[in-house]
Design a protein that fits this description.
This protein is an alpha+beta fold. It is built from 15 helices and 23 strands. A seven-stranded antiparallel β-sheet has the order 17-18-19-20-23-21-22. A six-stranded antiparallel β-sheet has the order 1-11-10-7-3-4. It has a five-stranded antiparallel β-sheet with strand order 5-6-2-8-9, with no helix packed on it. A hairpin with a 5-residue loop joins strand 18 and strand 19. The longest helix is centred in the last third of the chain and has 25 residues, at about 475-500.
Length: about 675
């Protein structure tokens, strides 16, 4: 689409009553990011209340019309997706504005490939609009959906604001109290906190109470005396939203007589003896919890186009298919406002692969019976641009069926995020999710996520040892794909434990497709014998780098942090040494200087004299690199001697013993160089 143009959604698809809007961007450095937001506007072009503003701390509407689905990594950036159920949008809402903003005054001109796409509920992309003229803007309206009679249309806008999130919000009727200097200094955070508090309060305020408009911000002043002229200031709205329930990370003290007693569990697993039993039990356990815990069920199905409504789930449902009826492992049905969304579920456990002919049968059944989607669920992790199962679709059929995949690791990640960090509606729901998580993590459940590097692992390692592995070897490509799956699973697991976004960084040339990127990584593996990856963790001062050297059988995990500008080098070195007081003695510390590398050594040798970290020639210090090394498992699985287990252990050890202690150093860097500060995280 061209800037300013518009198109009716009904003319593009019969399944456009519910759409997925995706906002994409990339960065050559791999570290650019932005936060999406959605505004519901009335006929006057204003929000009806502050509850009509949706962003990362207010991600979903109670009626299911809007839900922010979060970020997915792409080749060299990220994609933020938004689910819009247009049938659920209130009648007095005439426009749905889709926008994004950046923190710390960073402009959109630093990002590449700004793009918004709209897909229907079966996942088919209907339209796209690229923004090529971004420069100093810190907030951008990508596009909007608007009503014309009974039809919804999309308009490509591409309008920017150099006043950031505050300017965008104010333009559409959201009042932001920014009198405080502190609030102005952290404008995106202050606006986010203010709007979240107001939006949450508006959702529970009695209809007879007129909502206040002035919003509290960080550092804002208290109530002022009422005067006759001008009119009295409006009182701030109190926060009356019901608190979400989370479970403590530390287990309660047990009343058992000894450690051998096992607590009773809602979902027992020790009796499972066959793969069929595991599949039936895992499907039933998962689907029952999805139906009983609305937040969890919606979290898993919203990315597939399901509305927010009453969910029912079924297992082992017989469906006609020629002479031999088929029994999919499960069926999900969601009803809202008289409309029904349905999905067939095919489950695999214990590392068993999905069968293409079986999935094809379910796709055919779904097309004939009017089901919206088929969901496959297994330990495998789907890769960008590489479907797990190739199926054929009959283009003559009017009804289209989408095929989606979930990994058991993603299911566990979403459960952990809810019960440990974001919260659910009540204690019973939290307990159900806790029991589900315990079931998934049990060694006999078969639901452990990606656990096998594949049959090509041993031949590739042997080829590297004997220097006989050549470029173009398909087995090397299979190892690179398995490595990418492993890294994505590491991100899910670590993100669930920390309650932060953890995403892989893809440093590829602009416009590089996933297959070309993997071909480059394959060539590098054949030449250097190394597998490498980078992770970006919200709230950490740098990028976590992982290198698995198959020639030396060693894993290196490292991070680079910038040195505070304006600080004395010796002061920075001493401060870093103090922060790493509890770090392992074998931690390697390297000083980074302009034009090369500076002094290096183990922490054991540098602790007594931090001045040894300073370059002798007085070169300017740009930062520090810290690294830990670990022996690499040889087998392809996740046993104690396995490669997958060794990667998990190396990442956990480095983050817990090194990265977790660097926050004070990061804050010092942020005060010295505000432009390089990471995006703050605020929970309301």
């Amino acid at each position: 689409m061209a800037k300013g143009s518009n198109v009716g959604l009904a003319s593009l698809s019969d399944a456009a009553d519910s759409v997925i809007v995706s906002l994409c961007w990339s960065s050559a450095a791999g570290d650019g990011d932005a936060d999406v937001s959605v505004l519901l506007l009335d006929g006057n072009g204003k929000v009806r209340s502050d509850a009509d503003f949706f962003f990362y701390n207010h991600p979903a509407a109670a009626d299911g019309s809007v839900q922010l689905l979060g970020k997915n990594p792409t080749g060299s950036g990220s994609e933020d997706r938004i689910s819009l159920d247009l049938t659920a949008v209130p009648q007095d809402v005439e426009r749905v504005v889709v926008a994004a903003s950046r923190d710390s005054g960073s402009p959109f001109g630093e990002l590449d490939d700004l793009l918004v796409t709209v897909s229907d509920r079966v996942g088919e992309t209907l339209l796209g609009f690229s923004i090529a003229d971004a420069s100093v803007e810190t907030a951008f309206i990508f596009g909007e959906l608007y009503r014309r009679g009974e039809e919804w249309k999309f308009r490509a806008i591409g309008q920017g604001y150099d006043s950031g999130l505050a300017g965008l919000a104010t333009d559409f009727g959201i009042d932001v109290d920014d009198e405080s200097d502190d609030a102005a200094a952290t404008e995106p955070v202050a606006v986010a906190v203010a709007v979240a508090q107001s939006a949450l309060a508006a959702e529970v305020a009695p209809p007879s109470v007129e909502p206040a408009v002035a919003l509290p911000t960080q550092g804002a002043r208290g109530p002022q005396p009422v005067e006759a002229e001008p009119p009295p200031a409006r009182a701030r709205r109190p926060r009356t939203a019901k608190k979400k329930v989370t479970l403590a990370a530390v287990a309660k003290k047990s009343l058992a007589e000894n450690d051998g007693w096992k607590p009773a569990r809602l979902f027992p697993v020790p009796s499972l003896k066959s793969d069929k039993e595991r599949e039936v039990r895992a499907t039933s356990v998962l689907l029952s919890v999805m139906a009983e815990v609305p937040e969890f069920g919606r979290r898993l199905t919203a990315p597939f186009g399901a509305p927010a409504g009453r969910m029912q789930t079924f297992t082992e449902v017989p469906l006609p298919h020629g002479e031999n009826p088929k029994r999919p492992d499960g069926v999900i049905r969601v009803e809202r406002a008289g409309k029904l969304w349905t999905a067939l579920v095919e489950t695999k456990t214990n590392g068993n692969p999905l069968k293409p002919d079986q999935v094809q049968s379910y796709m055919d059944i779904a097309a004939r019976r009017g089901y919206e989607t088929v969901i496959t669920l297994s330990n495998d992790v789907a890769l960008e641009g590489s479907p797990l199962v190739a199926v054929k679709t009959d283009g003559r059929r009017k009804h289209k069926v989408a095929l989606w995949h979930l990994s058991w690791a993603e299911v566990a990640h979403q459960a952990q995020m809810l019960i440990r960090h974001e919260g659910v509606g009540n204690t019973a729901h939290a307990w159900l999710l806790q029991e589900l998580l315990h079931y998934l993590q049990h060694e006999n459940s078969g639901c452990h996520g990606f656990q096998n590097m594949g049959p090509a692992w041993v031949p590739v390692r042997n080829g590297i040892d004997t220097e006989t592995l050549c470029k173009g070897d398909q087995r090397a490509t299979e190892v690179v794909e398995s490595w990418e799956r492993l890294i994505r699973q590491v991100c899910l697991r670590l993100g669930g434990e920390l309650g932060q976004k953890v995403l892989p960084v893809q440093r590829a040339r602009r416009g590089t497709d996933p297959h070309s990127r993997r071909a480059l990584l394959t060539d590098r593996l054949c030449e250097e014998g190394r597998l490498s990856a980078e992770l970006r963790i919200d709230g950490t001062p740098g990028v976590l780098a992982i290198v698995a050297d198959l020639r030396t059988s060693r894993i290196r995990v490292s991070i680079e942090i910038p040195a505070p500008e304006g600080s004395y080098p010796l002061t920075s070195a001493k401060r870093l040494a103090r922060l790493l007081a509890q770090a392992p003695a074998d931690l390697h510390v390297e000083t980074l200087v302009e034009g090369g590398n500076g002094p290096r050594g183990t922490l054991e040798k540098l602790r007594p004299e931090p001045a040894d970290m300073l370059p002798k020639d007085g070169a300017h210090i740009t930062g520090f690199r810290m690294s830990l090394f670990k022996g690499m498992g040889s087998t392809r699985g996740s046993a104690e001697s396995g490669f997958i287990r060794s990667i998990d252990d190396a990442v956990d050890r480095f983050h817990g013993n090194v990265v977790a202690h660097l926050s004070p150093f990061e804050r010092l860097t942020a005060r010295r160089t505000p432009s390089s500060a990471p995006s703050p995280q605020v929970k309301v």
